[in-house]
Amino acid sequence: MCICSSNLGLVSAGLGVSLAPASIRNIHRTGVVYITLNTLNAEVELVAAWRQDEPLPVLQTFLEVMKKVVSQNSCEDAAQDTI
């Protein structure tokens, strides 16, 4: 189950609120209301996580792809230092 779907389940149950990508609006849950947050300079900090004791063979490829994606972002300098 994806994290966004789990979050929506908690929201639907009345156990909180959640920030989510706009694409999640396609998931209809009873009692859940979506609003658009309009900001001109919104930033989202993302992290990658994996099990230290069980690195997957695809991990290195994934990290290389993420470096390319991040380098196309306007925060290139900060991102290069973090990945």
Number of strands: 0
**Mind summarizing the main beta sheet?**
none
Helix content: 25-40%
Per DSSP, the total helix count is 3
Overall geometric form = extended
Quaternary structure annotation: single chain
Distance between the termini: 27 Å
Strand portion, in percent? under 5%
Please state the average pLDDT score: 77
Computed structural class: mainly alpha
H/E topology pattern: HHH
Runs in which pLDDT lies below 50 for 5 or more consecutive residues are 76-83
Rg for CA atoms: 17 Å
Draw up the topology in text.
Blueprint: H1 3-12, H2 59-71, H3 76-82
In short:
By secondary structure, the protein is mainly α.
Describe the model.
The structure is a single chain. By secondary structure, this protein is mainly alpha-helical. Helix content is 36%, strand content 0%. It has 3 helices and no strands. The C terminus is likely disordered.
